[in-house]
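Form 7-S
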Amino acid sequence: MIGMASIIACQPDDFDNGNGLATVPSNLEITAIPVGQNTDNPYGDGSGTVNFTATASDVITYKYIYNGQEIMAPAGKATLVFSTSGVNSYDVTVEAYGAGGVSTSKTITVEVLSIYVAPDDLLEMLHGDGEKTWRIKAESNGHFGVGPANETTPVWWAASPNDKAGVGAYDDRITFKSDGTLTYVTNGDIYGQAAPLDADYGISWETNSDGEYANYPVDDFTDTWTLSAPDGQETLTFNGKGFHGFYVGGNHSYTILSRSENEMTLRTVGSDGNGWFCILTSEE
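Output:
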């Protein structure tokens, strides 16, 4: 199984310390703890979820790399989900960046147990008999929202119906397929936060007063998806750059807060550490 991570490209100019001098980070250390690990469960609780922490001296930011995918972690923390059944070993590399864009790296091997089997009704909801197409439920209150990462509702802000018309979100379509792949139709542009879009795509664009990019130029793309249940909570993860209609970076894992046959409410933790919410519907 593939570890879940967002794809982010870092440029040396992002790590300027103001004096033009390059500083190589030192003393890079990495810890990896499977969720639910204890004496009786040395490989975790079977969710396949692992929490990583990296520390180093003279560091500005970190990057986790697994299976060709990358996740930026300014605080050194990242969560990856591995879903190959049974106990398996995975190599994860961390790059620590210092001033001037110079870096050092280290690889850690983690062993983790994955025993999760998604229930039939969840799979039926997500892709039906073969594939199913989803969109942002723009006509609903709270179709976008933000709050603390551990909240189950967007307590800080919730979008009113059609609040974000014209920014490149409402015409997006996500088609989940039973073979674990998906297609994301952007119709030429998307909507999201400037910082993670800069990091992942690097296209210069005009920022609005909220630090967002509207109508950001991104072509249709394909991705893969997996389901897991860390701590018993159903979670949908995009293995690449897939997202929920508003791009916020992070690890692209979405907690399924509620679901019905044709609707699901999701929350992800963005690269800013906040909880970002959305409502998707498969009804046109």
